[in-house]
Amino acid sequence: HVRSRRQRQMCIRDRFCSHAILQRTPLIVPDALKDPRFADNPLVVAPPHIRFYAGFPLISANGLAVGTLCVIDFKPNAISDGQCTLLQRLARQVVRQMELSRQAGSLRQAEAELSQQACPDRADGMEAALAERFLPKAVFDDTIDLMLELPAPPSFSLLNIKLRDLGRVAATLGHRAGEQLFQQWGQGLLELLPATASCCRSSESEVLVLLPHLSQRDTVLSIAEAVIAFGERGLHLDTHRICVPMAIGAAISMGNYKDSASLEADSRLAQQAARANSGGQVRFIDLLTRVSAMRQMSVEADLRQAIAEQRLEPWAQPIVRLEDGHWCGMEMLVRWPQPGNTPLQPADFLPAAERAGLLAEIDLLMLERSLQLLGSQPPWVGEGLLSVNLSSALLSHGEARRTWLQLLENTQLPPGWRIQAEIVEDALQLDMDPIEAFIGELIRRGVRVALDDFGTGYSSLSRLHYFSMHMLKVDRSFVTRINSHQHSSNTLLEMMARMAETLGMELTAEGIETAEQADWLRRQGYNHGQGYVFGRPMPWPEFLEAARLATKAP
What we know:
Layout: H1 5-14, H2 16-20, E1 27-29, H3 42-45, E2 52-59, E3 65-73, H4 81-118, H5 126-133, H6 137-148, E4 156-163, H7 166-173, H8 175-192, E5 198-203, E6 206-212, H9 217-233, E7 235-237, E8 240-242, E9 246-253, H10 260-275, E10 281-284, H11 287-308, E11 313-321, E12 327-338, E13 341-344, H12 346-355, H13 359-376, E14 384-390, H14 392-395, H15 398-409, E15 417-424, H16 432-444, E16 448-454, H17 461-466, E17 471-474, H18 476-479, H19 490-503, E18 506-509, H20 515-523, E19 528-529, H21 540-551
Parallel strand pairs: 9-10, 12-14, 14-15, 15-16, 16-17, 17-18, 18-19
Antiparallel strand pairs: 1-2, 2-3, 4-6, 4-9, 5-6, 7-8, 11-12, 11-19, 12-13
């Protein structure tokens, strides 16, 4: 109803919140009738007869008070320090949510305008719908912390979902296609979850799902399995049907966690355990997973120290010219010496190196050590090829790329020797511009570039043609099936030979174990070979002796 200006001013003045909003600390009124500021307040002496009030100012990022969060009671009451802390956190969360909501609204409006310009006839509300249902990470964490800090914390569950191939889709079809796939997947996810569930996109390919009041393992498992089945059925993206394989880690809170960080850490451990297996997997955090994680952390710490002390060693395996069987080069492969034991193979510690972000450091160490060995005593006089591996981690790290080039610049190779950089096929999914520039710089410096493990990754022929490559290294999985009665790879190997010839590339076959395999590959036009039939990876002194015997004049 209509009030006079003075009536409105008096009403505003009389409100408890008008006092709370003027200060930066909570306003606590245990009994309004005993507080001189409110004893004659109309809201106290008349309906609704407020007696207890706790007001928490909502302070925005620019320092302005935009409102209050208040708790009232109609009888005298009190509030504990713990309850006060919880309400202060809730007030901060309210402010954060208000600001994020405002920013999200502005962003959605800008995106809608851009979308309208690009596709004026298309109405796509899916992205806006996800923005409303997927909480920002800070708000998601605060929600969990508030639940855990309640006097009697409720039981609930947390799912950590890893979309295995989202990065590959984005690299192959473009970032926008990857986002469209995520939005479609996210919409399907929300339809499978209970209405009380909350979601958060914690990284480009990871999603956290909070399931309040769900702590029964079987119930949580059925939800996770339904999500995995949904992804395996596949989603339509333009003309493509794309499966979305997932790994899901689950942690159940039943009074055993103190904060969101520890709960999320356990869900991530479980997710990593699930990701270790192929296909869709669900793992709950358990003692075995924790023990495994502790072992992994120990391995990572030891590996970091071994790298710092330069204890990793390059072992050499011969590269042979198939036409005449002569040794023409060597691939340097990393080994980790163990006191009193056989050195660890790459498969035993490179996964730990990848988790710890150490692959680029290992690449640099192997190049440095290999150049030192070759410079001090080349295995033979004349032309030769020193082949070293470049991981995706190094290729995606600008400083590591520059250090790699600096090592080459500071090293004088023996006469007739060249460096060959082996790049795994999956590295072609990275941002093409810096990788193309790096490969171009390698070629200008006389480095040969080989595509390693060809046929097992996800690169397309267009990307293969886009990059300048000297050699394709065909994976051993094809070589071992030559003339196999089941699933023979002969036809595929023949096709690879014709393709390499058309593109002007040389071919190396890895994993050759018999003279018959070597002869068949030679007849198909393969230039070089590696494998146990020619020589296993060897420590440098042993390789020098083997090279001397293999290359000495008859």
